[in-house]
Amino acid sequence: MKSRGTKKKSLKIRNIEHTESAEMKTNNKKLKRKLVKYEELPAYLKDNEFIRDYYRCEWPLKDTALSLFSLHNETLNIWTHLVGFLVFVILTVMTLTEKTTIENLLTGFSRPAGEGRWMTMKRNGSADSFPDTYTRQISAPSFIGAYRDGYEVAIWPWFVFLGGAMVCLVFSSVSHLFACHSHKFTLFFWRLDYSGISIMIICSFFAPIYYTFSCQPYWRFFYLTSITIVGILVIITLFAPAVTSGHFRSFRAALFLAMGFSGVIPAAHAVSLYFHHPQVLVALVYEIAMGLLYAAGAVFYVTRFPERWKPGAFDLFGHSHQIFHVLVVAAALAHSIATLVIMDWRRELPPCNAGILG
Questions:
Q1: CB under 8 Å to 312, separation ≥6 — which residues?
Q2: Which pLDDT score is estimated for 125?
Q3: pLDDT for position 309
Q4: What range does the domain containing 344 cover?
Q5: Residues of the chain with pLDDT under 70
Q6: What one-character DSSP code corresponds to residue 108?
Q7: CB neighbours of 150 closer than 8 A, spacing ≥ 6?
Q8: Is the N-terminal amide bond of 131 cis, ω within 30° of 0?
């Protein structure tokens, strides 16, 4: 009897210990999924002392992935570039399928048709006006077809730009989603993020330089080769062991400033060659807008305004990194319009050997 009572008591103790253990595990999981304050973060996750709360810190991988659909201080950082990625996916799909509804996507960048048109220009000596919208050129059959005289315009540089933009934006979204998981993930994903920026810089150059300098193949080769080599060297440097998380912030600002202003020399060269072609000047205006948007984004990123002004007030909405992301997408769209303007201009011109481009 005594032995049986002892067994029952032992079994009861085990059940209690098992229950307590299960409760501890559940509490630990809840604790891991808890949003924490800046002071509770490990050193490698402390980046912006003006964002005071709503941090994810070393969550399990599954919970980190599912946090895509929850609210924290990285939610808008993830979704601003994820939405931008989807915009460029739509541009790519509509280019491939030749759907005319593409003009609705960027209608804000196009001029109104009919009365009150914002610009009328001469094209190659004739009094033709600009097309109603440059986004429409994506879906026009002649966009991937032949000129009136049988000369064809290559479309692959446009796809290079679209691909680079999508890589940059999706790398950014994924990095902001997963970098909080662990120190190892932080190092890898921020390197991935900056590699995406470098890829976008390289790819952004291809289309406008390819079309603008089609009749100057040596200059075209020089510009495209130079930017490609520099971009590859940057990516190699980013993955060097000597580069730590402390270097990432300066890398990001420098890369976007480079993206905004590294096109100054080829742009000035293009204007000097084709200043009497109004479409080139219009494309230049969009490129200047792109540069200013990237520069403004870099200023917000470096100064950490507005959260510096009122720490804790912009933890979830409106802090500098979110503004930076929106400006990056806007700059990429401005570059898209500039590229379409140049493509339309090139499409309407005779072959280079006609000798009218100088």
A1: 50, 51, 52, 53
A2: 38
A3: 94
A4: 75-101+152-348
A5: 1-32, 98-152, 241-263, 353-358
A6: G
A7: none
A8: no
Tokens 């700059």 -> residue: 331
Residue 262 CA to its chain's centroid (Å):
17
Question: What CATH number has the domain bearing residue 332?
Answer: 1.20.1070
Q: State how far the Cα of 90 lies from the Cα of 301, in Å rounded to an integer.
A: 28
| The pLDDT of residue 147 | 42
Query: Taking the CA of residue 113 as centre, how many other CA atoms within 13 Å lie in the half-sphere pointing to its CB?
Result: 7
Report how far residue 317's alpha carbon sits from residue 323's, in angstroms, rounded to the nearest whole number.
Answer: 10
User: What is the C-alpha separation between 116 and 162, in angstroms, rounded?
Assistant: 32
Domain membership flag for residue 216: yes
325 is in an annotated binding site: yes
Give dist(CA 43, CA 308) in Å, integer. Answer: 20
pLDDT recorded at residue 258: 62
Residue 73: which of 89, 102, 53, 46 has the closest Cα?
Answer: 53
Q: Is 72 annotated as a binding residue?
A: no
Q: Is 176 annotated as a binding residue?
A: yes
Structurally, the chain folds into a number of domains equal to 1
Two tokens at 36?
Answer: 């924490």
Q: How far apart are CA 185 and CA 181, in angstroms?
A: 6
State residue 323's pLDDT score: 97
pLDDT (0 to 100) of residue 242: 61
Length of the chain: 358
Cα 334 off chain centre by:
13
